[in-house]
Amino acid sequence: MQYTGGNRLTLLRNGEQYFPALVSAIDAARLEVFLETYIFADDETGSLVADALARAASRGVSVHLLIDGFGARDFPARFRDALEAAGARVLVFRRLLRPSLRRSRLRRMHRKLAAIDGCVAFVGGINVVDDYERPLDDPRVTAPRHDYAVRIDGPLAADVRGTAARLWRKVAWAAMRRRTALEPPPHLKPPPPAGSQKAALVFRDSLRHRRDIEEAYLEQLSAARVEVIIACAYFLPGIRFRRALVEAASRRVRVKLILQGRIEYPFLHYASRGLYGTLLDAGIEIYEYNAALLHAKVAVFDRRVACVGSSNIDPFSLLLSREANVFVDDVAFAAQLRQTLEQAMAQDALALAPREWRGQPLWRRALIWIAYEAARLAISFYGFDRY
Predict the structure, then answer these.
(1) Largest alpha-carbon pair distance within the chain?
(2) Which of 115, 285, 305, 317 would be 34's cystine partner, CB 3.0–4.6 Å?
(3) pLDDT at 385
(4) Which is catalytic among the residues 64, 68, 117, 256?
């Protein structure tokens, strides 16, 4: 990783903090806006962000919205019409034409990032969707979806802008037959230093950066000496990642995993639990988050290096999807993220005891084994030999 200094980084928790900051930055834009999101929902939050983009475009800002063809397949026509009428441009990454099991068709644009005027950027795991899965007056609502993003002011924002612009150009060229024109980029000045924090943008694509996010995690795990905390919504790591976790625990590093407790996708839910026994036996602590859906993809290493991004620890994120994470080498930022994770473990998560885990009912153990072996078979089918 190449760390860039001179940044001011702001940790944003959940949409409650993220969307006001994002909309404020879009409203302050003078030259251009890039926004990438996997999901762009037809709800209050979607309307909020779409309106902000349309306002920017109507005052002459060059607005680029890139959505995924699968995650945002229900992107409302009224949003598109309003944005294009205002002068914004909307592109779809790998439009979903028909169901397919081909590996190439499984590649998605899973990044959630924004770049404004080349000097402000946002990177994280938060889609353009309401925090709550159900209406707030539903008695089953207990807490918002748990997620994070980071606002970047300073030189690293230029890296985010460059990454977004490169992907936009690639998708735009592919869409030329649909009469999607390219426009010259505005003249942007390099952003001046805005603080003293060091950070690196690490992204995954299908060419030169296919394993960069995985390698960044493995580098931090191998260097850890005291503590590792990882919160991950969808957790099905490969052999190298599992080995790195176990080896860290064998060095007396305290390894804590905060994982999804609620059942969102049953197959993945039970398949991932096929790894729990081995990890618990190695001394790794596992906490299942139950207050709401866990959507975070964050980590803290030795209370100094923090990671916030879109990449889960599973074969789809690490080996197929386009992802973007920010690694931050700053004690204060790491402490802030660590505090929120410790709070989640203490108040909203259940710690799994190795003995109790081994003593689960036979039917549940059988279900976990079947799901895990089926997942391994599917992963092998697509050629991921390290899983």
Answers:
(1) 64
(2) 115
(3) 59
(4) 117
- What is the rounded (10 degree) CA torsion for 286, 290, 291, 292? 110
Residue 221: which domain range?
198-381
Looking at the structure, do residues 55 and 136 belong to the same domain, yes or no?
yes
88 part of a folded domain: yes
302 is annotated as an active-site residue: yes
- Catalytic pick among 42, 51, 205, 302: 302
Catalytic residue among 64, 110, 198, 269: 110
Catalytic entry in 198, 256, 269, 295: 295
Query: CA–CA distance from 378 to each of 59, 381, 385 (Å)?
Result: 49, 5, 11
Instruction: Give the span between the Cα atoms of 305 and 59, in whole angstroms.
Output: 40
- Verify whether residue 297 is a known catalytic residue: yes
Q: Which pLDDT tens digit goes with each residue over 155-205?
A: 999 999 999 999 999 999 887 745 555 566 677 889 999 999 999 999 998
Supply the pLDDT for residue 133: 76
Structural domain count, the chain: 2
110 included as an active-site residue: yes
Q: Would you state the structure tokens that stand for residue 242, as one six-digit string?
A: 């599992």
Among 8-17, 307-316, 372-381, the minimum mean pLDDT is found in 372-381
Q: Is 64 one of the catalytic residues?
A: no
Residue 117 annotated in active site:
yes
> Is 98 found in the same domain as 19?
yes
Pair (371, 267) in one structural domain: yes
For residue 85 the two structure tokens come to 């009428």
Say what percent of the chain tops pLDDT 90: 79
CATH number of the domain where residue 337 is located: 3.30.870.10
What's the burial of 361, exposed, middle or buried (CB within 10 Å: 0-12/13-18/19+)? exposed
Q: Are residues 264 and 304 in the same domain?
A: yes
180, part of any domain: no
Do 81 and 205 lie in a common domain?
no
Domain assignment present for 182: no
Catalytic residue flag (residue 198): no
Residue from 297, 314, 330, 348 carrying the catalytic annotation: 297
